[in-house]
Design a protein that fits this description.
28% strand, alpha+beta, 7-stranded mixed β-sheet, 6-stranded antiparallel β-sheet
């Protein structure tokens, strides 16, 4: 595969004849986030051509209304004469053709959606996810594409796509490859490295407290771990794109690359850096799980309308489940750090009342309308957290049934080998592969853990691997009444009330602003201090504003703890428990000195 061409300016040129659909993007006003796009579609005999800009992008199951940034749309024929058009749907323009002709489009795009990881332009860079810039038509969706950029002098352009014949140009087999291969162009730091004969790149935009050389060394260790799950790699070249930002954060997987955004000073200390590595691992796992194989409902991508599936918990939850395991195998994460993350997930689940209401399958299907927030946590689960736990339970089930000969990793390799795109896999395919792996029928298991709100026996699951959970020594019981707050104008605003906890029973709600306990004012940051002074079961009067009206409720403090739940190794593990641990995580059971 070709190396990406490095930073010299290009000029707007005539379309090349060696690619069927051509895109040219010109950074025309970077300070104001503006670009101009020109598209050339081949000659068509159709009476009209519907051209579309996606309404959502891959990796984010949410309608984003990307067409809202398009202005000055024009359509012309092969001779440059205007073609009549009208907008027939929020993301679709219909171009009318009186005779066969090539169709050329030109329009401006406002690119200031950094946090959505769709499009962003400023005077230092441009992030180009094709879903936010480049229109397509179903008639030519499968035709080869060519992309040319006109960018400021000194910019460097990088993508998972192959580079074209000119600087700042790229080629792809079709629109689906283009839309899943973002481009990062601008003033950036660029590293190349090789592992097991495959080429990798790390490109970083933005200043921050990162150590790029350390990142390269650690990514080398991470990418070598793919063989722990899958029998081969689906790429020969992979690009890690990193944005060190002033607030935008998150990440998205792509066909042979990922984009990771973190606040510029959140790459250190170690806990923060480990978060970056976990994210990098998560997106790397997606290169197989989603980009090489994914549920039937997600293929092919619709781009305009939602793609529905009840299996997103496998696509996202399983990825979350594997991410830290790869770091552990690579020696990038210590057992204690792995246990801390596991304990955090267990505790979050215990304080998510939605676990009693929604199943993993329902959460998957409803991801497009995921509510989140106070209501979401009380009445829903999400595909990441719930999918992680369902994956863990399934892994322990497979390991136990096969006497440690097979695991959840074997299921994912089977999906990769037998159900690779473009066909996608179904629920029946997953259950059939589980039966082939274990010799057992998983119909009842599926109903209990996927189609119904799941109940997990965490103590049993941990004990199989010689682990236990509980609170540290000297943990004290403290008052707690099940709310979360944030500071607002010097006061404490309630953002979440846990269903059926004491504050919920007393009538507190998200949006209330706390002002006093037993008639004494509380300010931002005071609540935790005041709770430490109380005892579980103690009654008090809580005053708050709601609709600007002062109200007072009697609240009885519930029971909490002053330390977090922890997972740790047991004192005297058996050989069987040590063997289970090794088969589960791929590393030896921690020695006593590591506890």
């Amino acid at each position: 595969m070709n190396r990406i061409a490095l930073g010299v300016s290009t000029t707007l040129a005539s379309f090349s004849a060696w690619s069927d659909v051509d895109y040219q993007l010109t950074i025309q006003d970077p300070a104001h986030h503006m670009a101009n796009v020109v598209v050339a579609f081949p000659k068509t005999k159709q009476k009209h051509l519907d051209v579309k800009l996606p309404a959502w992008r891959t990796g984010r199951y949410e309608i984003l209304e990307l067409a809202n940034g398009v202005r000055h749309f024009k359509a012309t024929n092969a001779k440059g004469a205007p073609l009549r058009f009208e907008k027939v749907e929020k993301s679709t323009w219909r171009v009318y053709l009186e005779q066969p002709t090539q169709v050329n489009l030109q329009y401006d795009v406002y690119a200031n959606q950094l946090g959505k990881r769709t499009r962003h332009i400023d005077d230092s860079h441009a992030f180009i996810d094709a879903s936010g810039y480049f229109m397509y038509t179903d008639a030519y969706r499968q035709e080869p594409v060519n992309v040319n950029l006109t960018v400021p002098q000194g910019w460097n352009s990088v993508s998972g796509m192959d580079s074209g014949k000119k600087a700042h140009s790229f080629v792809a087999d079709n629109y689906d490859v283009l839309v899943d291969s973002p481009i990062e162009t601008g003033v950036n730091e660029h590293h190349h490295f090789e592992v097991d004969g495959r080429q990798y790149e790390l490109v970083i935009w933005g200043k921050g407290n990162y150590d790029s050389n350390q990142m390269v060394e650690d990514l080398k260790k991470l990418v070598a771990q793919g063989s722990a799950i899958w029998s081969d790699y689906p790429f020969q070249r992979y690009v890690f794109m990193v944005h060190a930002t002033s607030g935008a954060r998150g990440a998205t997987e792509h066909l042979n690359s990922t984009i990771i955004q973190k606040s510029r000073y959140s790459f250190a200390p170690r806990k923060n850096y480990l978060s970056f590595l976990s994210t990098a691992s998560h997106e790397f796992v997606h290169t197989w799980n989603v980009k090489a194989y994914r549920p039937e409902g997600l293929t092919p991508y619709d781009y305009i309308n939602p793609n529905y599936t009840k299996l997103l918990w496998i696509s996202e939850g399983s990825t979350s489940y594997f991410q830290n395991q790869l770091l552990l195998r690579a020696g990038l994460m210590k057992p204690k750090e792995f246990f801390e993350d596991l304990a955090k997930r267990i505790q979050r689940h215990q304080h998510t009342p939605g676990r009693e209401v929604m199943s993993a399958a329902e959460s998957s299907f409803d991801s497009w309308i995921d509510h989140g927030g106070d209501f979401g946590r009380n009445y829903s689960v999400n595909i990441y957290s719930e999918g992680f736990l369902v994956s863990w339970q399934l892994d322990t089930q497979l390991l136990s049934q096969t006497k440690l000969q097979k695991s959840y990793r074997d299921l994912h390799d089977a999906l990769y080998q037998k159900h690779r795109l473009p066909k996608g896999f179904t629920e029946d395919d997953v259950k059939e592969e589980l039966k082939l792996i274990s010799g057992q029928d998983y119909t009842a298991w599926w109903k209990n853990y996927v189609e119904s709100p799941a109940t997990f026996d965490f103590e049993k699951m941990l004990a199989l691997a010689g682990l236990e959970m509980g609170y540290p020594k000297k943990t004290k019981e403290i008052a707690d009444f099940g709310i979360k707050t944030k500071s607002k104008e010097g006061l404490e605003e309630v953002i979440h009330v846990e269903r059926d906890k004491t504050a919920w029973i007393a009538g507190l709600a998200a949006g209330d602003t706390l002002v006093a306990i037993d008639g004494m004012r509380i300010k931002a940051g005071d609540l935790k201090k005041r709770l430490k002074e109380m005892k579980p079961g103690q009654a008090f009067l809580l005053s708050f504003f709601r609709r600007d009206e002062l109200m007072t409720k009697k609240v009885v403090a519930g029971q909490g703890y002053d330390k977090k739940l922890e997972v740790k190794t047991i004192e005297s593990p058996t050989d069987q428990q040590k063997a289970f641990y090794k088969s589960w995580l791929g590393v030896d059971y921690p020695a006593k000195k590591e506890k």
